[in-house]
Amino acid sequence: MQCLHYDKTTLYMENVALSELANEFGTPLYAYSYNQILANYKRFDEAFGDYPHTVCYALKANSNPAILRMLAKCGAGADVVSGGELFFALESGIKPEKIVFAGVGKRDIDIEAAIKIGVRGINVESEMEYEVISDIASRLNRVAPVSLRINPDIDIHGHPYIATGRHGDKFGITRDIALSLIEKIKQDNYCDLVGIHAHIGSQIKEMKPYTELANYMASIARKALDTGHRLEYIDMGGGYGLDYERALSVGINARGDDDLAIDPAKIIPIFIEAIKDTGVQLIIEPGRALVANTGVLITEVLYLKKTGNTNIVIVDSGMTELIRPSLYSAYHEIVPLEIRDAETMVADVVGPICESGDFFARERKIQHVGRGDCLAVLTVGAYGYSLASNYNARPKSIELLVRGKRVKVIRERQSLEDLWDE
Ligand code: LLP
Q1: Is 80 exceeded by the pLDDT of residue 309?
Q2: Do 221 and 275 contact (CB within 8 A), yes or no?
Q3: Is residue 55 within 8 Å of residue 40, measured between CB atoms?
Q4: How far is the CA of 101 from the centre of ligand 1 (A)?
Q5: Cα radius of gyration (the chain)
Q6: Does the beta carbon of 229 lie inside 6 Å of ligand 1?
Q7: Whole-prediction pTM value?
Q8: pLDDT tens figures, 347-365
Q9: Which of 150, 191, 202, 390 could form a disulfide linkage to 162, CB 3.0–4.6 angstroms apart?
Q10: Helix axes of 208-226 and 264-275: crossing angle, nearest 10 degrees
Q11: pLDDT tens, residue by residue, 73-109
Q12: What's residue 51's pLDDT?
């Protein structure tokens, strides 16, 4: 995480000491770096050169309104998967023509809203969904812009819960069905085939699945064009992975290296090369790669104990704030806000939730901590707060945006009254 560094012994985000934030606002606390968000967006956007494109940010990664407004101002579009996310995208100032609507289970009411609002494309995830979209459009006497979400049967070699592009996964349609829909939609007065879409999974760390995907998508797009469709775009989805393991090497003045495992400057030209003869625009949908390395979760140590041979550090956040370790065995680096001249210890860092699966790290070597010390859990800007819950009647944490020396509250901590909704 480039936005973090130790100045002497204190951990800073941009120019703000994170311990000061913990003192002022309490914990658990999410803090995001304004400048890192901008830099991440720019890095993707610039990788396209002058090729016509839209970077449609996948809102599910982090839909804090302040962050959405920032990305909207930069020119980002949005990948949304529900009526709620569609509402968020519009509220943040993203224009309908930059919004693509995905999801295997769209409700009729959301499809209707998307058609009326005039989104860029509604992804078709099954033959049955295509019929429903066409019926709704005909009832409204409107033409629905549709895009075929292809399941190309490409394995990303990652965690099975976040692989989405293999046959047997619930997402998308096979090539055969896509080809038959390309013919069918040609006869349909209420649907316009504007795009070909795929999203093969998340946290992809190799180039190969993407290079395979690029050619696969280009061949289907050519079929659509040959059939006479006025195809506007190919959408290669998101998935660009990060190196969570080396977010920051703990040490004086240590700075994080590049977090991205897939360099946009390498992959985007490969996409462009594969599709440029089709003349259509290129869309991508990064979520994680735009925000993961911009956020930290600050948590305070409550207790230490030992069961058997295992040291256990109990902190005041858990799977309710960050579920990724519990759900995907995900690794997040954990570092102290203050480096002390202390020994290291090997411990399980766990939360206070009444679930054995509530942990941040197992057998992790950390600086020796005591009650009241604060730790930062790194690379949590994506799928951190957005997957938070109120389980165990726990109010959701506060969210802060750090810009240089300035700090802004971008979401208040929930109160107990917010939870007690009679
Ligand atoms: N487009 C579509 C259609 C998606 O379903 C997703 C993510 C994205 C784009 C963005 O993918 P990204 O660039 O962020 O990898 N909660 C999991 C990740 C789930 C991803 C779901 N879909 C995690 O914490 O790892």
Answers
A1: yes
A2: yes
A3: no
A4: 14
A5: 23
A6: no
A7: 0.95
A8: 999 999 999 999 999 999 9
A9: 202
A10: 30
A11: 999 999 999 999 999 999 999 999 999 999 999 999 9
A12: 98
Give the CATH class of 34-290: alpha beta
Is the CB of 239 inside a 6 Å radius of any atom of ligand 1?
Answer: yes
pLDDT-derived band of residue 254, with 50, 70 and 90 as boundaries? low
Sheet holding 10-13, edge to edge: 4-7, 10-13, 16-17
Length of the chain (residues): 422
Catalytic (active site) residue 374: no
- Calculate how far, in angstroms, residue 197's C-alpha sits from the geometric centre of ligand 1: 14
Mutate to test the pocket of ligand 1, among 243, 259, 285, 291 (most ligand atoms within 8 A of CB): 285
Map out the domains of the chain as residue ranges: 4-30+293-421, 34-290
Cα 352 to middle of ligand 1, angstroms: 27
Residue with tokens 């696969």: 216
Closest listed residue to residue 110, CA positions, set 52, 99, 65, 383 = 99
Asked if 4-30+293-421 and 34-290 have one fold, the answer is no
Residue 369 predicted with pLDDT over 70: yes
Gap from CA of 267 to ligand 1 centroid (Å): 18
- Is the pLDDT confidence value at 250 over 60? no
Place of tokens 């941009």: 14
Q: Are 292 and 259 in contact (CB under 8 A)?
A: yes
- Given this model, what pLDDT does residue 153 score? 78
Q: Does the CB atom of residue 256 touch ligand 1 within 6 A?
A: no
Substitution candidate for ligand 1 out of 44, 54, 56, 60 with most atoms within 8 A of CB:
60
Q: Which two tokens stand for residue 381?
A: 């800007």
**pLDDT at 252 > cutoff 50:** no
Nearest-CA residue for ligand 1 atom 20 is 202
Which residues make Cβ contacts (< 8 Å) with residue 103, sequence separation at least 6? 81, 82, 123, 125
